[in-house]
Every structure is written in C-alpha cells, then in structure tokens.
Amino acid sequence: MKLIVGLGNPGRKYEQTRHNVGFIVAEKVAVLSAAGSIKVKFEGELAETSIAGEKVSILCPHTFMNASGQSVRKALDFYKLELSDLLVVCDDLNLASGRLRIRPSGSAGGQNGIKDIIRHLGSESFPRLRVGIDRPPTGWSVTDYVLGKFSKTEQETFEAATTRAAHAAICWVGQGMGSAMNQFNQDPDAKPKPSTSKKTQRRDVREPTRSQSSEDSE
Fold this sequence. Notes:
A hairpin with a 2-residue loop joins strand 3 (44-51) and strand 4. Helix content is 36%, strand content 18%. By secondary structure, it is an alpha/beta fold. Helix 1 packs across helix 5, helix 2 (68-79) crosses helix 3 (112-121) and helix 5 packs antiparallel against helix 6 (177-184).
C-alpha cells in the first residue's frame, strides 16, 4: 500500500494559491485513478484508490501547512506503513516555476510542511515530489507570495505542471522511484541533444589532403 499526501491550506481563501499545489496534484491523482468518495479522516480529506494493482490512499491534511506532520503521522500509524511508502507533494520556492523534482529523501529545504512532517516522523527518509513556484518578485514577502493566487500568465504553466506531477505520483506507485525520477526530473521544455555514435563520427571525418597543413587536420 502507498500513501500520497498533498500539502496545502484548507478553505476557499487558499484555493488556487501557490502554497496549495500539493492539494491540486493530490486531487488530480484522485481523478486520474478514479478514486472513491472523499472521507474526513486523519485530520484531513482522504480518498482511496488502486494504481497498477496497488492500494493507494490520497490524503490532504486540513491541519494547515505548518502542522501537516500530525495528520501524516496518524495516517502512517493507522496503515502501519514504512516511510518509503509515503510520497509528500508540495510547492518549492527554490525550483523554477513548473519544474518537478522527485527524490527518495532530503531536508526540508525551507518548506514548512515538510519540516513539520520530518519533526513528527523523526526522519528525512521519505519520498517527496516538489513542484517549483520560483522565488518571489522583488518587493514581495515570501508569505504574501506563497499565499497569493496564480497570475493569469502562471495559470497555464501550473495547469500543465500539476497534471504532470499527478502522473509522476502515479508513476512512482506503479513503476518505482527510479523510473519516476528518470521521467519527471527532466526539464519538459529542454530539447534533447542529438546523439552521434562513434561510427557516425568516424564517417563524418574526412581524411586530410596533401595540401592541408598538420594544424588543419587536427
């Protein structure tokens, strides 16, 4: 069994804010996997589903971001899961807007929800999926920025990013951490570099003619 936790703040006031991308991703995982009805459990909203034959619970804590750990701890204890069976989805100020970073463990990196989960679990050794929201513009406080709603220019970026993150979470369940990292840690806008085999390279090199100097033929 796996537990996917999306971090955010409950209530209409915080809907579609940068700090709530974890909620958005969790909701998309629930839709894509045809999860059952939402229950109120573990101080949050919980939906159950099955992905690639694996039972999965999707949790959105309603304890507010800075107290996320108590909800996660209750769920882990109830299901008797290992830390490796937990995937926490959250926003990240240190990643460019829309970039994803999935890792098997790591520090809080300044993310208060992750920090509280580490405190409650007593370990950093649990998988997490970060969705980049970039740094605040000049003159903005971090609090105002993360609790602010997406601008019109950001909406398309985050619609695509949160959908991609939902697929990354599904991949983590069905194919494992290594596959998810290989597929989703790449920049989706980066153009792949053309690869040329050694044989191709040899064919492209022309033998220097007698009129060429030794410098020209290097």
